[in-house]
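Hi support team,

I submitted a single chain yesterday and got back a structure, but I'm not sure I'm reading the token output correctly. Could someone confirm the output below corresponds to the sequence I sent? I've pasted both exactly as they appear in my results page.

Thanks,
R.
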Amino acid sequence: MSTSEAIEFTEEQEALVVKSWNVMKKNAGELGLKFFLKIFEIAPSAQKLFSFLGDSNVPLERNPKLKSHAMSVFVMTCESAVQLRKAGKVTVRESTLKKLGAVHFKNGVLDAHYEVTKFALLETIKEAVLPEMWSPKMKIAWGEAYDQLVAAIKSETKPSA
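Hi R., thanks for writing in. Yes, this is the structure output for that exact sequence:
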């Protein structure tokens, strides 16, 4: 994705994402872990993509490396979504995007993995916000923001230099 490509993310979508992130932010650690546990529940084989889980006998929900990783991924994803309209593009540092692209390439992350992750993210957000706050429009807004982040990561998905 070139930086000249403007992303269409409406004011309404931005408001929905910001409103829900403000509710979730204080529980980012717990929600990040729930997010990853959902991914592994849907696709247990995805655990193999995380080298730090391979040699651990600690249950996933208590694994400190998973907790740390899950929180950072969840926060990065949500912060990227919040900034999308204002910036007109995914606002993750370029070095971070390159690193994410290289790691995802090296670990063999496939489109199906991104789809499972999107489903888990949307379910995590749905459960985290008040039932009356969640709506089809909010789901679409978060889905669009996630898709833009994935497109940015995929644009850097190649072997590390």
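A quick pointer for reading it: The helical segments are 11-24, 28-42, 51-54, 64-87, 94-106, 111-128, 136-155. Let us know if anything else looks off.

Best,
Support desk
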